[in-house]
Design brief:
With 334 residues, the protein is α/β, with parallel strands linked by helices. The chain has two domains: 239 residues, TIM Barrel (Alpha-Beta Barrel), CATH 3.20.20.70; 65 residues, Up-down Bundle (Four Helix Bundle (Hemerythrin (Met), subunit A)). It is 42% helix and 13% strand. The chain has an eight-stranded parallel beta barrel with strand order 1-2-3-4-5-6-7-8, surrounded by five helices. α5 packs parallel to α6. The model has no long low-confidence stretch (mean pLDDT 95). The structure holds flavin mononucleotide. The site of flavin mononucleotide has 23 residues, from β2 and α9.
Length: 334
Amino acid sequence: MASALITRRCSVAPMMGCTDPHARYFLRLCSRHTLLYTEMVPAQAVWHGRGERLLAYNSEEHSVAVQFGGSDPLQLAYCARMAEVHGYDEINLNVGCPSERVQAGRFGACLMAEPGLVAELVTAMRQATALPVTVKTRIGIDQQDGYAALAEFVECVANAGCRTFIVHARKAWLKGLSPKENRTRPPLRYDRVHQLKRDFPELEIVLNGGLRTLEQAEEQLAFVDGVMLGREAYRNPYLLAKADAQLFNDPRPVPTRHELVQAYLPYIERQLAAGVRLSGMTRHLLGLFQGRPGARAWRSHLSVGVARSGAGVEVIEQALRLVPRELESGAVFA
Ligand SMILES: Cc1cc2nc3c(=O)[nH]c(=O)nc-3n(C[C@H](O)[C@H](O)[C@H](O)COP(=O)(O)O)c2cc1C
């Protein structure tokens, strides 16, 4: 069941290979308020009948947004309906991925060159669902990298009814750079995203790219409506545990890392009983103790331990004992 209120003040970015349901379940334990995004789901795969598997998630993950990649209005309208039936809180269109495979399908970042088509896709999805339809985009692509082109793109898509734009503040080179290189080069231009918010005050503008700390996130919130954290939230998920207090003013105590792991164990046990591999869940925990004494022992015990046949949650409990306990927070997991 979709929750009534979504706040995009802080969100975790869609990341293929990272933000799967197991990761999101854990990230939700870390933060009650942060909006979570799925990995990109190819519209074509849903269209061809793989929706049930690709759209499965845990009800505890709310608020959760599903991101689709595609460029066919019919397929995306179908995806939007499926997402609503599954109870997602938001539908997001990927207009930011520069990979060659995605370009070959004529979707992702290359759609920035076709604002009219993106507007058509947004219209098709909005007609199929009452859920908010949002767009995640770049500040430009290749030679189309001036502010005027970005503003034109946003205006055109906003005219189709998109109220929320998540902007990765870096342009994408569609030829010559890999998706990985396209996340560190060319340089970030936060000023372009700030300008968008000034020029389109009625739109919700969320800034993404390069944020490593909550202090940096807070600084950006003076200029935009929301921040989206990608790699740092995944590498160092404890950052999110502090986000509730720092960015959402939640007065409840921040859970300790040990408490978060303990709260994740029953989920892991249920998933193991359903035949899920242990490593598919523990891989999302590797960065939890980053920067803390015992972090290396935690990582290596988890990595080696889960590979043993028949390994269960005891591997995680053993790894936990290798890390000094922090002060108890008294947080309660309801
Ligand atoms: C491993 C990985 C996978 C990603 N997959 C997606 C994706 O599926 N959809 C998308 O819109 N962006 C994807 N991205 C880009 C992120 O959503 C985000 O825009 C980018 O990492 C910049 O934010 P950051 O600097 O906070 O990491 C991915 C990034 C990484 C590192």
